[in-house]
Amino acid sequence: MRVVSGIQPTGNLHLGKYLGAIRQWVAMQDQMGAGDDCLFFLADLHAITVAIDPAELARNTIEMAAALVAAGIDPDRSTLFNQARVPAHAELQWLLAGTARMGWLNRMTQWKDKAGKNREGASVGLFTYPVLQAADVLAYQAPHVPVGDDQKQHLELARDIAAKFNGDFGVALFTQPEPFISPAAPRIMSLRDGAAKMSKSDPSDASRINLVDSDDAIAQKLRRAKTDPGELPDAAEALADRPEARNLVTIYAALSEEPVDAVLARFAGQGFGAFKPALADLAIATLGPIRDRMTRLLDDRGAVAAVLEKGAAKARETAAPTLLAAQKAVGLQV
Q: Which residues contact 79 (CB under 8 A, 6 or more apart)?
């Protein structure tokens, strides 16, 4: 079994990103058996499809890599790298660009959402973003790809591109990837607004718990998190119309790795005056060691870069046969 997954190297890593993506990767790694392979990459090529600060992108790439290692990704068991170190991603994208169709890309909902009304002003890279995503997967012949709801359409496109390339050139080259269903990732919302997703772009730092926050900052943010005056119920259904309360209970359940109903059974009838300190203790116990490991890793950024290069060397070797076969299929190699 081989699993491939990527994440953009955005700055200011927070609890939502950890619970929604990074911890899922660690779980996938730990599920793999002998001979299985996990390839996790930082999507720095995807990041340059919009306006970026080059120095910030370089810094974020190293910091994201450190966060992944600190959270449990083991470079000796998984292949960890950034796209830019593996030219096969960009080279294969160009080959697949001759197979992908404008109509397919025009239908991508993320293109419509991100370009908005200014499609003429959006970059070509943003438009062809899904073709690079297809190359990310097809380069490694990965039969399984972890996907969330927002990426299902892109995986379907990768399957379409693989099938058309194979058919157009009369080869049985690309494996059609199937979705890999990982443990359900919780949707973590803002601490200030239960209707908005926790995000680094929120102007209020109090809206999120950053992985680099001190223990005191974590406790303070949770103590001040928006809630309602009601007591906690004994069943999740009773939180349906209480978004802030539901969010805090969701965070507790995710950190403790237990069902929401189990959390509510323990705190039913209590108010947030009792619940928030318990949540703060749990968050500090979980995130504190990750923060400390990440801080130590970032004391030597060169060593983190070396981890990425080690993974990239393995990824280049893994992708090389597929890239060569694709070049031969279209007549670029004999």
A: 37, 38, 39, 40, 311, 314, 315, 318
Q: What is the mean pLDDT of residues 198-206?
A: 92
Instruction: State the Cα–Cα distance between residues 39 and 80, nearest whole angstrom.
Output: 6
For the residues 253-265, what does the mean pLDDT come to? 94
Output the pTM of the full model.
0.90
- The residues that are catalytic are 114, 197, 200
Most confident segment among 12-21, 32-41, 190-199:
190-199
Instruction: Say what the pLDDT of residue 312 is.
Output: 98
112 burial type by CB count under 10 A (0-12 exposed, 13-18 middle, 19+ buried) = exposed
Residue 122, CA distances (Å) to 43, 119, 130, 261 in order: 19, 5, 15, 45
Phi, psi of 178 (to 5 degrees): -105, 150
Name all contacts of 313-317 with Cβ < 8 Å and 24+ positions apart: 314/79, 314/81, 315/39, 315/41, 315/79, 315/81, 315/85, 315/86, 315/88, 315/140, 316/85, 316/86, 316/87, 316/88
CB atoms within 10 A of CB 149: 7
Q: What confidence score (pLDDT) does residue 150 get?
A: 65
- Residue 328's Cβ-count burial label (10 Å; 0-12, 13-18, 19+) is middle
Cα–Cα distance for residue pair 300/247, rounded to 1 Å: 36
As a whole number, mean pLDDT of residues 176-188 equals: 77
